[in-house]
From TrEMBL:
<dbReference type="InterPro" id="IPR009875">
    <property type="entry name" value="PilZ_domain"/>
</dbReference>
<dbReference type="Pfam" id="PF07238">
    <property type="entry name" value="PilZ"/>
</dbReference>
<protein>
    <submittedName>
        <fullName>Type IV pilus assembly PilZ</fullName>
    </submittedName>
</protein>
<feature type="domain" description="PilZ">
    <location>
        <begin position="9"/>
        <end position="86"/>
    </location>
</feature>
<dbReference type="GO" id="GO:0035438">
    <property type="term" value="F:cyclic-di-GMP binding"/>
</dbReference>
Amino acid sequence: MTSTPPRPRAHKRTPVSIEVIVNGVLNHVEGRIVDLSEGGARIDGASLPERSRCEIHYAGQVVYAVVMWSEWDRMGVRFPYELTQGPLHAALERARGAAAIPATPVFLSNRAIGFGRRGVS
């Protein structure tokens, strides 16, 4: 039996912090999306059984998902329909835009040339 090498992900994952409500078959729990892409998400604070289907509610939008892996305090979900519009997609785009802004070095320009705190050479 031969194993196939893992495929690269189709979408770039982006770190976010988005409060959501996850509806399972019998219950609904609050969670936080900490990793998001057009194809799926990692949700902390919520856990449902693997291969179960759920709904993710955010800002009036419902996104359907399938649980791919699950631990006692987090889970990874895949979206059967890619995110292309709506509030969750807008939050993803905002997070990607914020990550693209480079950090500016604030203190390097004020640093004295020389040795020590007094700039003795």
